[in-house]
Amino acid sequence: MQLAFCLYKYFPYGGLQRDFMRIALDCQDKGHKIRVYTLAWFGDVPEGFEVIIVPVTGLMSYTRYQRYTAWVQNAIKKMPVDCVVGINKMPGLDIYYAADSCYEEKARSQRGWFYRLLPRYKHFADYERAVFGNDNNVEILMISKTQEPFFKKYYGTDPARLHFLPPGISRDRIAPKNASDVRRDKRAELEIPAAHHLVLMVGSGFIKKGLDRALLAIKSLPDTTLAKTSFCIVGEDNHVPFMRRAARLGIQDKVMFLSGRDDIPQLMQAADILLHPALDENAGIVLLEAIVAGLPVLATDICGYGHYVVEADVGALVSSPFNQTELNQKLLLLMQSDRREEWQRKGRRFAQTANIYSLPQEAGRIIESFFGRGQSSAKLGTLAFALFKYFPFGGLQRDFLRVAKNCQARGYKIRVYTLSWDGDIPTDFEIVMVPVTALSNHRKYELYSDWVNTHLQSQPVSGVIGFNKMPGLDVYYAADACYEDKARNQRSFLYRLLPRYKHFARFEKAVFDKSATTQILMIAAAQQSLFQKYYDTPESRFHLLPPGIAADRRDLGGRDEMRMSLRLEFGIDDDQLLLLMVGSGFITKGVDRAIEGIKSLPTELRDRTQLIVVGQDNPKSFLRQASKLGLEKHVTILSEGRSDIPRFFLGADLLVHPAYAENTGTVILEAMIAGLPVLVSDVCGYAHYVNQAEAGRVLSAPFSQEEFDQILKQMLLSDERDEWGINGQRFGTYADIYSMPDKAVDIIAETVPQC
Fold first, then answer.
1. How far, in Å, CA of 362 to CA of 546, rounded?
2. N or C, where is the chain less crowded by C-beta within 10 Å?
3. Are residue 213 and residue 105 in the same domain, yes or no?
4. Are 434 and 452 a contacting pair, CB within 8 Å?
5. Pairing relation of β-strands 139-142 and 389-390?
6. Top-ranked range on mean pLDDT: pick from 393-397, 525-529, 627-631, 646-650
7. Domain range holding 306?
8. Could you give the CA distance from residue 384 to residue 431 in angstroms, rounded to a whole number?
9. Mean pLDDT, to the nearest integer, of 690-699?
């Protein structure tokens, strides 16, 4: 039988990935052919496996998964299989291995009602329903009974489709006969004295596994106990912010990170406690592996396999809701206990009697009885995007490209009208260069609008989406602030007599007037009231979008190497402090304020502080300012933009964004989730996320240079920067800040007719 396994990503040390590998190998041993569809594969490929790397990309994870699903289903049509086994939830499966918890329950219990209006929620809810809904017949391999009530509650899943599997740990985790020798040798390798405590934590995804909780628990130990304690963390993730956190807590000499390892059984023999204070864990295979190794366990009770700790009587659980004090107290009690030999004995007994090894075999038995299937999709019409100018590094331009590509991925053809295009053209985009010129911008935009509308009459489209204000739009992406409000509050009445004002006011009215029909995609809620004040725009035409930052700003690999390479490129030593500004339009972004802030620093601090500004604009006036202040060696301006912004986030110590005006400020979120603390002015539409995440500081209004100077100094000297960075990264794991393109496409699809 030919089996197709669908797995988004494979790497050797993930629990889900290890389960997949054991199941697939067992099926192969039974004589079945194995084909794997995956977005990425790290590690050796087993002999006889056909691994197909699915060639799709997407800025949002769920967009990537949608494209992956469509690609796989099309591939299976061309190369049929007997059974499709999903290790991740998706449509078109015969078998699903239910390693993840119930998404619908988490969305309803941990999020507000607004979250359920977003495309991210829609995607994952639809994918979960495609598996658990009663209108399909997917057979479900359950690894934890804790989730069963939720799937029945929300989907009414037929119990006959739920197959509960025993755990499937490897027998090499069982304590060997020479366990004492292994313990001695491994401790010698790690340079841990026999009389010291070794606390072990195992798992990739340090935030989700609760490493910040664990560090606080280690810090809480009495000085006499802490002096004889080492904390070892094994897993694949970025350890730098947590090592900095440990340093801030004063326990850096007690903490070691070992990355992914093949010697987990030996480390478990060397350790005294497995610490696993996870925030979310459907199963937690490492708990069982520790138990059979004779290693006592301290875990949170949300872990699906946590009940085995109680059943085997080899440790303790921290009750929900989580309490840090309870974790601290139970850790100390376990470390002071004289029950180690008893736990080892109970662990060995549990290893001999419990059914905790047969998951692959039981899963393989169920898989053998099913057959595959496939789906298809339809093609939609053409969308015209109106954008005055495209260049790769502008925030508006990047938003446009993400939205357009998502429309293309859903089946629309893409046509773009622009005055200039700088950069690569995406595959199958039709770029129409509008051939108009004029001495003034407003006159050029008038000619552009007339030309585009004439061209659309001869070559019509399903819908017109504008990223600049102009007449004739079906949908407008409202990246700019209200022009009328700025004209009335920041200019004299004489300004409103000029043709420039009349042009921009007319173009804004064409979009927002109550008599217009343009649907408006809002990215900053604060501006809506201004548009309604001046144009009486109906509430129903506004659609507030979540942020839409690119996922590559969060999932940054090789963090240490990227930080080092950037600093080497610009000659910045490890002991120097690097300030970063990112954004085109240097005046608006407040580059002058940042330079003044550096000048205000105490001499010793200023001497080891550097500022790098990245964006597209004329740098001359700011370089003159730096020279006048004696800061030539402290200020670098990269005025042609860069495509490697994530390197700058990792290489810097603080993002400064003292903008004069900023409707949103996407770079603020990008820096936060990359682990870079931020200092921003409160005029930025996204500044509130900084306070929400506790990832830096927000300046009060009205702006004060003195306040900026003072807070800049405080942040550069503060030992809280590591904590701000960790908080920002954690925020990136749960906040809905990625789904703007898909939400925008949903609204576009509802607005324009299909072919």
1. 43
2. C
3. no
4. yes
5. unpaired
6. 627-631
7. 171-357
8. 10
9. 94
Query: Which single residue is written with the structure tokens 């004492």?
Result: 180
Amino acid at residue number 1: M
Same domain? For 156 and 195 the reply is no
- Residue 564, H or E segment: helix 559-569
Identify whether the C-beta of residue 223 lies closer than 8 Å to the C-beta of residue 292: no
> What contacts 24+ positions apart, CB below 8 Å, involve 148-157?
150/101, 150/102, 150/104, 150/105, 151/102, 153/105, 154/102, 154/104, 154/105, 155/104, 155/128, 155/129, 157/132, 157/133
- pLDDT band at residue 237 under the 50/70/90 scheme: confident
For residue 669, what are its two tokens?
Answer: 């979120």
Q: How does DSSP assign 130-173, residue by residue?
A: HHHSTTS--EEEES-GGGHHHHHHHH---GGGEEEPPP---GGG
Strand partners, 654: 579
Q: CA 130, CA 136: separation in Å to the nearest integer? A: 7
Last residue of a domain, one of 164, 184, 211: 164
* Longest Cα separation, the chain: 92
124 and 155 housed in the same domain = yes
Rg (CA), the chain: 29
Q: What does the pLDDT look like over 294-336, one tens digit per residue?
A: 999 999 998 988 989 998 899 999 999 999 999 999 999 999 9
Residue (of 108, 101, 180) closest to 147 by Cα position: 101
- Cα distances from 564 to residues 267, 349, 573, 608, in angstroms, run 30, 50, 9, 17
| pTM for the whole structure | 0.56
| Range name among 402-411, 482-491, 718-727 with the lowest pLDDT average | 402-411
Rounded CA separation 575/539 (Å): 53
- DSSP per-residue codes, 67-89: HHHHHHHHHHHHS--SEEEESS-
What are the contacts of 146-154 at 24+ separation with CB within 8 A?
A: 146/282, 146/304, 147/98, 147/101, 147/102, 147/282, 147/304, 150/101, 150/102, 150/104, 150/105, 151/102, 153/105, 154/102, 154/104, 154/105
Q: Kindly state whether residues 615 and 705 are assigned to the same domain.
A: yes
Determine the Cα–Cα distance for residues 205 and 203; give it in Å rounded to an integer.
Answer: 6
CATH number, domain of 462, equals 3.40.50.2000
